[in-house]
Amino acid sequence: MKPKKNPKKDLNKNRGLYFIAGLALVMLLAYVALEWKTYEKNSIYIGSIDVPDDNIEEEPAIFQLKTPPPPQPIAPPVIEVVDDEKDVIEDEIISSETNQEEEVVKVEDIIVEDIDIVEEVDFIRIEEAPIFPGCEKASDKKACFQEKMKEHIRKNFRYPEPAQEMGIQGRVSTMFVIQKDGSISDIRFRGPDPLLEKEAQRIIGKLPKMTPGKQQNKSVRVSFVQPIIFKLN
């Protein structure tokens, strides 16, 4: 019996080949669809450049040095010279009345001694004050002496730097003696701190030689007190 279908037109003859070809075509279309890329009209794609790590320039580290604030300026010292304020010691008044119970001394028993003047007199009580150089023709030599003392202190004054840094200030009382030959000696001082005392001693030690003071027309030692005030603004 002859077959009704034409063997040349049998579709099942190359079915495996068609299947493989179709599968390859589908895979090709899927690959193309996955790899398809679209770009904006105005954008330009330049690709990517791989740069090795060795060629990458690192950003330098910047350290800002903070400068300390300038030191606070030290306030300039203020010199204040105080006039001689030593109190005058009043003489003690002794009663001259005789007591009847006391034994009367005979005239022959009285020994008369030579009376000498006092060796040292305070500046306030001196009859003829010592003459500071430059006060020879002054009418009031005591006032001129005190004014010259102030000028001498202002001229030679130096506030000790350690005392300024520590804020030390106060009053230093100085006392010295003008000898019979006009030289300065026996410098004594008392103050709140040794730094100020040392400076006061240095100032008084630079006093010039003077004309000595006189009591009863004789040269005597004259004591003088001069306060010096160290003050910071």
Description:
Its main location: membrane. Belongs to the TonB family. GO terms for molecular function: energy transducer activity. The chain is α+β, with helices and mostly antiparallel strands and 233 residues long. The longest helix has 21 residues. About 6% of the residues have low confidence.
Q: Give the distance, in angstroms, between the N- and C-terminal Cα atoms.
A: 141 Å
Query: Can you identify the CATH class of the domain at 77-87 and 118-232?
Result: Alpha Beta
Instruction: Note the overall shape.
Output: rod-shaped
| CA-based gyration radius | 57 Å
Question: How would the blueprint of this fold be written?
Answer:
Blueprint: H1 15-35, E1 77-81, E2 120-122, H2 141-156, H3 161-165, E3 170-178, E4 184-190, H4 194-205, E5 214-215, E6 218-219, E7 221-232
Which structural traits does this protein have?
233 residues; alpha+beta; TolA/TonB C-terminal domain; five-stranded mixed beta sheet; two-stranded antiparallel sheet; 4 helices; 7 strands; energy transducer activity; transport; TonB
Short structural summary:
GO terms for molecular function: energy transducer activity. By secondary structure, the protein is α+β, with helices and mostly antiparallel strands. The chain contains four helices and seven strands; from the N terminus they run αββααββαβββ.
